[in-house]
Every structure is written in structure tokens, then in C-alpha cells.
Write a structure and sequence with these properties.
The chain has a seven-stranded mixed sheet, with helices on both faces. It has a six-stranded parallel sheet with strand order 4-3-5-6-8-7. The protein has a five-stranded mixed sheet with strand order 15-17-16-19-20, with helices on both faces. With 819 residues, it is of the alpha/beta class. The protein is globular. Thiamine diphosphate (TPP) binds next to loops.
């Protein structure tokens, strides 16, 4: 399908000048009478209570960190505590107008935001709803502890619950909001709309955009705010997140009833410092952070600078911007001015700023100023505010006492492998939500009509090749798996570069453009970080998503999103969140050094990812089916060498009906008794060719096993084969050094040592750049390399004359040279 938007050369070449909107700077004018009418004294006082609660919480942590004690309680907190003392008004103002189903995401400095948003949600939820949440969350574990000391009504219980759940998490306790899997920088509590906080600077930005995308695509209520620091504006992924959030297509191409752009507000908590660098004046060039909005879209992201030392100014901005977002006119950028009195962290020596500067800000301390405001305008008496203060102090003391006690608040039992159990959710779900999937065509009228009419195998009944164009290919097998899930799961969406119209760079999605509306299949900006990061946010918000990075080499551009985000949030949530995210990547060839790497070992190394690499069309469909019904993050490797290949190994070919390959099970592609060859990915076919030669020339029978999975992986059939043959060679297209082939070799050695006649040999690609197409046979393992390696290292082949250098001595000199 071609584009719907025509590029008109006359218009494109028209002279003119760009006009930019003005950006309001601290434009809020306080009007106490209007504020009294709008909020009422009770709510104005509640704002004070919330700010004071955050202040006391952070002072308590500061005391534990610096003195090892808070009042009469001693405790040595080993973990970090990035405090936001001074920033309370910005947090409470941000949260005031938010509904419980509005989400916030944040950074390493988010205790204040967690409490502000939770207190705001508690105020808005009924007692019944609060009890339901507390009783069900983590099977009531935090509630049980809190009930042992909390007195008062349900709202009061919920406040203690929030303080305890957060503090116990910071202290790494089993009844913490994330069972201690997150700690201070990652604590969160989804039932109140407090979503993951991120210790990677700017890491929350694209995740939050993905969460907002989830809300739009699935027509869920609420907006999403990402609270990130001013220094995070220097992070590439933050820029990518803004690009992704500002795409024109939401308004030009998506169905109107979706409601426009994802409702995302980038709230930069501008405290004027990174750790020690000053974004304004030193490390960045924007002059004023809000200016950046001008570069993003014609509306300048509705950017404003807001006085974050006045909670009412922030609340006003959020209320106005919330409307903009609800109307689908986002994204929005706020430059919320604030300041932290405390250091970046407890280890901060304060060498980068003067005491005088800190004192200047203290003169405008928001808590003191706001207290004066309440008193001056007769919203409360000093005695009332003092009573609030003592109530907070008392609560904090009780909460802290419960949280520091190992008896009341034990840690998870690490001996019982509890953390291991959190790594994967291991569930199978046909759909992540109920409802009819939105499609444009009945399934039978899609490209399935063509693929279903093809030969399902590349071989006829006698094993002779059928005409290739008439056979179902690996790429088409992937298409059938995608199509199936799109028609089963209403939440499923897919995107990446050139996914629509083009059908993906390798045509896997050809035909899906006609079958699916824009919000279920769309082209993203060339923003690999945001492609992966938004998918993380989409998945952890409850939707199934397939993100695609054309070449696996481009994972380099999405390193944090894959290695730190996609892999970790299920476990850091202690099983509260799921990550039904499949990241498709392809291993290239013929395109040289930057488009041909097999990076399986890198992802297989990262805990929390499932890693699959089908080598046949049968597996392409059966393994993608498996990945797409699961609830875990999967990096799904494909091979460009195989996209156009039919099924030649699995008898009967690729079933038209739905099926799955069993998780983690390697496939024996050819039985044998003299030697075992284990392969990962497309190397399989060169191993089979080598096996053929072994048989024909040397009368040896090789058992060839296609690992298919890297993680999880059942070693049993591989070890059984190793025990049977006594000789094992592992081959893959990944550069040999540090490859997953070495992991296999090492484990096979340990598991079958007594049965082996020699060390397990590894054949990988050279530890070089991949050269140009014409030279690449010197880089990737060839059939001869496998035969020569066997001959040199495992089993001398009578009369064999090696044509390549594979002797063990090669390992020494190549490593000495680092190649
Ligand atoms: C990607 C990344 N780089 C560096 C760090 C180390 N680091 C932690 S906080 C911080 C400064 C962040 O400043 P800002 O975004 O303004 O947030 P603030 O600490 O001021 O709240 C740095 C450099 C990190 N955590 N992540
Ligand atoms: Mg900062």
C-alpha cells in the first residue's frame, strides 16, 4: 500500500519564515481569593499536609543515612537515598489534580512523587476501593504489617500503608511495594498510578510514552506524566521519546476515535543540577529548558516554565495541560523550577555549589512559604498546622519502627530462590484483555489467502525440491504467526521502522497494512531506543506489543532499553507487572560490518530475557506463536539468509493451523552416533552440509542439533547426544570470542565430561569486522571450517587435507593478537 500523504514539490519549495509560539515563563499569578474558591480550605491544607509528609519522610531517610538513627531508632541503610528535600511543592502540585488511573513514571529521585501521587489517589478513592487494593496487592503482605501498628480510619490506614510500603521497599524488605526487588531508586506502586521509577537518567521517558500509547490504543482513561530531571534533557532516549510522542500520524492518519496523540506530559523537575553539572549555563545550551519544545513540533509541545516552589502554580499547569492531553493535542513539556537542598546522594561532598546558593533557595522554602500563605489567608491556624505536623511525625516514627525491624519486616528468603522465580512470569495468555480485535479485513481475505495456497514444504513426497516461489517461506511463516495473534489479542500492536506500507524491510508484514488500522501497525521514527523503550512501557501497562529493529546491529542504539528496561521490570516488580513484548531483530549478511553481526550472546547474557533463534520456517512460525502467547520479554532473532527459504527439514512442512514449538527444546535435525554438532541459527545448514560430507567421504554419522533457544534452554537432549557420541562441536555465526557457543561448550563439558573423548570445539565467526559481501565467506563459519576443526581437534579424518587453519594452536596466537 502506498502513502496517503502526497509530498507536493510546490509547497515544499515555497519561501517563507517559521513562526514559533511564545513560551510562558512562570506566568501563574497567585489570587488567594480565587484559590480559596477553587480549592476550599480543606484541600489547601491537605496540600500542606502532603508536602510536610514528604519532607518528614526524606528527613527521616537523611537521618538514617547520615547518623544511622532517626529519633530512638537505629538503622544502617546500605542502599542509596537520592533525596528531594526542597522539591516537595513540585511533587504535590504535579499530583494534586491527577486521578488514580493517571500514571506517573519517574527517576532515581522519586520518593516525593511516589508519596504525592499516592496521597492524591488515597484522597480520591473510596474506602472500599482502598481496602480492595490493600488486601489484594502482594496478597496483602504490606497490609498485614501496617495493620499491626496503624490506628484510625481507612484513609489513615492507607496513608500509613503508602509510607510503609515505600519505606520497606527502600530498605529491601519482603513487604515493601516491590518485595525489595527495586529499592530506593525503583520503588513504585501501580494501583495508585505510581509506575516504575528509573535509575537510568532519562530512562523513564520512552517507557512513559509507551504507557501513554497503551492508553490511547486501548482507549483507556487517564494521562501519563514522566517526571525526569533537567539533566536528562541531554539523553538521546529523551529526545527520541519526544519525537515518538510528537508524530504527526496520530492526527493525520490514525482513526479519529482513537483520540489523537498519546497523552504524555514530560515534566522536567528542573533543580538546575545533574549530579554536579549545571544544565543551564554549563552542560547544555538551551538557556531555558522549556525552549526545547520549540524544536519538537509547531505547538512547541505547549511548553511552559512553571514555578515549582508554588504547589498551586504547578497544580494549575497540570490541570490545563491535562485538558490538552485529553483532547489528543499532546505531547506537553513542563519546565518545573525547583531546587534540592540535600546533595545528589548521601555521598555528595557538595563541592560544586556554594552554601550561599542553598541558603538563597531556603529563603523561599516552599513549605514555609506555603504555611504562611495558609495562615495569612485564614485557611488554618498555626495550632492546626502544628497538629498536622505532629501527626506526621508520629506516623513516620511508627512506620520507620516497623520498617527497620527485621522481625516485623523480614527480607525475602534468598536461599529459596525467590528472586529467580521473579525473573519470568511464564504465563500463556491468548489475549491481554477482552474485546474484539480491530481489523480492516476478515482474516481469510488477508494475505493469508496467498500464503495458505502455497506448498507448506519445500520438498515433495519423494524429497525432491518444489519450485521455490510456490513454497511458503520463513518470512511468510512469521507473517502467519503475527496475523494469528493480531486476530486474537485486541491489545496487540506492532511497530518499528518501515513496518507499514513497506511491510518491514524484509517484507514479513506485507499484507498487514491492508488488514490493520494504523494504531495496530505503524511506522516509527528512526529511534531504536524509543522503539524498544515505548514497547517496554506498552507491555508493562498491560498490552502485547511487537517491536522490530531491522538489523540486530541496531540493538546498539537501544542498549539501555533492552538490557536495563525490557529485561528487568518484571523482576523488579516482584511479579506485579508482566512484559508481553517480543523484540524482533534480524541477523544480516552481505551488508558489511555494521549490518551483519549476530549479537545473540549479548542478549543471552542479560538476566530476564528469553532468547529465541529459529532456523527453519516451521520453527519461525511455531516459535513466534509461542513468544506471542507468552507474557515474558523475548528477543526474537531471525536470519536474513533464511527469509526466502522454504521448509526442507521438518517433515510435512509448516502447518497452516496454529501450533507452538515447546519452550526451550532443542531440535535434533539429523540423528547420528559419531559426533554431535550443535548450532545456533542459520549455521545449521552449513553444519548439515558438513554432516553430509562426513557421511559420504569418511563414513561418519553426525548428529546435528539445532539449539533454537538460547534462554531458557533444556540441555538434556544435547547432553544425551554428547554422551552418545563423545565428541561435540558447537557452531554459530556469532564472532567466536565470548559467544553463546562458548557457553554451550562449557556447560556440555561440565555435564558430560566423563563421556567426552576430547574438549568441545567451538566454531564461530572471526573476531573481526564483517567484511564486504564479496569477502564474507572468510568471516562466517563455512562447511570446511567445521570439517577442519573436527579433524584438527576432535577426530582425525583419514586422508583429510584441511583447507583452513583450525588447529588448537590458532586459538593461542589469535587471542594473543586480540583477533
Ligand atoms: C544513563 C545514566 N548516566 C549517568 C547516571 C549517573 N547519574 C545519576 S543521577 C545523575 C544526574 C541526574 O540529573 P537530573 O536528571 O537533573 O536529575 P536530578 O538528580 O537532578 O533529580 C547522574 C549523572 C545514571 N544514573 N544514568
Ligand atoms: Mg537536576
Amino acid at each position: 500500500m502506498t502513502k496517503q500523504i502526497t509530498i507536493d514539490p510546490v509547497q515544499a519549495r515555497q519561501p517563507g519564515t517559521l513562526k514559533a509560539p511564545e513560551i510562558p515563563v512562570n506566568a501563574y499569578v497567585s489570587d488567594p481569593k480565587a484559590e480559596a474558591r477553587k480549592f476550599g480550605a480543606e484541600n489547601l491544607v491537605r496540600i500542606y499536609r502532603d508536602m510536610a509528609t514528604i519532607r518528614e519522610f526524606e528527613l527521616m531517610l537523611d537521618a538514617f543515612k547520615k547518623q544511622g538513627a532517626y529519633k530512638d531508632l537505629s538503622y544502617n541503610h546500605a542502599g542509596p537515598a537520592h533525596l528531594s528535600i526542597g522539591q516537595e511543592a513540585a511533587a504535590v502540585g504535579m499530583a494534586y489534580h491527577l486521578a488514580p488511573d493517571d500514571f506517573i513514571f519517574g527517576s532515581h529521585r522519586s520518593h516525593g512523587e511516589i508519596l504525592a501521587k499516592s496521597l492524591s489517589a488515597i484522597d480520591k478513592l473510596s474506602d472500599d476501593a482502598l481496602l480492595r487494593i490493600m488486601e489484594s496487592y502482594l496478597d496483602g503482605a504490606p497490609l498485614k504489617v501496617v495493620q499491626s501498628f496503624s490506628r484510625g480510619d481507612v484513609q489513615s490506614l492507607a496513608i500509613d500503608y503508602t509510607l510503609y510500603g515505600t519505606l520497606a521497599e527502600i530498605f529491601g524488605r519482603a513487604a515493601g511495594f516491590n518485595r525489595g526487588m527495586g529499592g530506593s531508586m525503583h520503588a513504585f506502586f501501580p494501583p495508585f498510578g505510581v509506575m516504575p521509577n528509573n535509575a537510568i537518567v532519562g530512562g523513564a521517558a520512552d517507557i512513559a510514552v509507551g504507557s501513554a500509547l497503551f492508553k490511547r490504543v486501548n482507549r483507556r482513561p487517564g494521562i501519563v506524566i514522566v517526571n525526569i530531571g533537567d539533566a536528562s534533557m541531554g539523553c538521546g532516549p529523551v529526545w527520541e521519546a519526544m519525537m515518538f510522542a510528537a508524530m504527526d500520524q496520530y492526527r493525520t492518519l490514525w482513526p479519529e476515535d482513537i483520540g489523537g496523540a498519546p497523552p504524555i506530559l514530560f515534566n522536567f523537575m528542573n533543580n538546575f543540577y545533574g549530579m554536579g553539572g549545571q544544565p543551564q549555563g554549563e552542560t547544555m545550551g538551551f538557556g531555558m529548558l522549556a525552549r526545547v519544545g520549540l524544536g519538537v513540533n509547531p505547538e512547541a509541545m505547549h511548553a511552559e516554565r512553571v514555578d515549582g516552589y508554588n504547589p498551586l502554580a504547578v497544580a494549575d499547569a497540570i490541570e490545563r495541560k491535562r485538558k490538552v492531553l485529553a483532547e489528543g493535542r499532546g505531547p506537553v513539556l513542563l519546565d518545573t523550577v525547583t531546587y534540592r537542598y540535600t546533595g545528589h546522594s548521601p555521598s555528595d561532598a557538595g563541592s560544586y555549589r556554594t552554601k550561599e546558593e542553598v541558603d538563597l533557595w531556603r529563603q523561599f522554602d516552599s513549605l514555609a512559604t506555603y504555611r504562611d500563605y495558609l495562615l495569612t489567608n485564614d485557611h488554618a491556624t498555626a495550632a492546626q498546622l502544628d497538629a498536622i505536623q505532629s501527626d506526621i511525625a508520629e506516623r513516620m516514627h511508627q512506620v520507620a519502627r516497623a520498617a527497620v525491624s527485621l522481625e516485623t519486616s523480614p527480607r525475602v528468603d534468598t536461599d529459596a530462590d525467590v528472586i529467580g522465580e521473579f525473573m519470568f512470569s511464564n504465563q500463556m495468555k491468548d489475549r491481554m484483555a477482552e474485546g474484539a480485535p480491530e481489523v480492516l479485513l476478515p482474516k481469510e481475505e488477508t494475505r493469508l489467502k496467498q500464503t495458505a495456497a502455497k506448498f507448506r514444504s519445500g520438498l515433495d513426497a519423494d524429497g525432491a525440491p518444489l519450485p521455490k516461489p510456490k513454497c511458503l517461506t520463513y518470512a511468510e511463516a512469521l507473517f502467519e504467526a503475527m496475523l494469528h495473534r493480531f486476530y486474537e489479542d485486541p491489545t496487540m500492536t506492532a511497530y518499528g521502522e518501515e513496518n507499514r506500507d513497506w511491510g518491514g524491510a524484509f517484507g514479513v508484514y506485507r499484507g498487514l497494512t491492508e488488514a490493520l488500522p494504523y494504531h495496530r501497525l505503524f511506522n516509527s521514527p528512526i529511534s531504536e531506543g524509543a522503539i524498544a523503550g515505548t514497547a517496554v512501557g506498552y507491555a508493562l501497562s498491560g498490552g502485547r506489543v511487537v517491536a522490530e529493529l531491522m538489523y540486530c546491529d541496531f540493538m546498539g542504539r537501544a542498549g539501555d532499553e533492552i538490557f536495563n528496561q525490557m529485561s528487568k521490570w518484571q523482576a523488579m516488580s516482584a511479579g506485579v507487572l508482566q512484559m508481553p513484548l517480543v523484540l524482533r531483530v534480524s541477523v544480516g549478511s552481505k551488508y558489511g560490518a555494521q549490518h551483519s553481526q549476530d549479537w545473540t550472546s549479548i542478549v543471552a547474557h542479560i538476566p530476564g530475557l528469553k532468547v529465541m533463534f529459529p532456523a527453519t520456517p516451521y520453527d519461525a512460525k511455531g516459535m513466534l506463536n509461542l513468544a506471542l502467547r507468552g507474557t515474558d520479554p523475548v528477543v526474537f532473532f531471525e536470519s536474513q539468509r533464511l527469509y526466502n527459504e522454504p521448509e526442507t527439514l521438518v517433515p510435512g512442512g509448516v502447518p497452516l493451523d496454529y501450533y507452538e514449538v515447546p519452550m526451550g527444546e532443542p531440535a535434533v535435525r539429523k540423528p547420528g552416533k559419531d559426533v554431535t554438532i550443535v548450532t545456533i541459527g542459520a549455521t545449521l545448514y552449513r553444519a548439515l552440509a558438513a554432516a553430509k560430507d562426513l557421511e559420504a567421504t569418511y563414513g561418519l554419522s553426525a548428529e546435528v542439533i539445532d539449539a533454537r533457544f538460547l534462554n531458557p534452554l533444556n540441555y538434556d537432549p544435547i547432553v544425551a547426544s554428547a554422551k552418545k557420541t563423545g565428541r561435540v562441536l558447537v557452531a554459530s555465526d556469532a564472532s567466536e570470542r565470548g559467544s553463546f557457543a562458548h557457553t554451550l561448550a562449557s556447560n556440555i563439558t561440565q555435564l558430560a565430561f566423563d563421556y567426552l573423548d576430547g574438549p568441545v570445539a567451538v566454531v564461530g565467526s572471526r573476531n573481526w569486522i564483517t567484511p564486504a559481501a564479496e569477502l564474507e565467506d572468510a568471516f562466517f563459519p563455512q562447511k570446511e571450517w567445521i570439517l577442519d576443526t573436527l579433524h584438527e581437534r576432535l577426530l582425525p579424518l583419514p586422508g583429510h587435507r584441511p583447507t583452513t587453519r583450525q588447529a588448537a594452536s590458532e586459538i593461542i596466537w589469535r587471542n594473543r593478537l586480540g583477533i
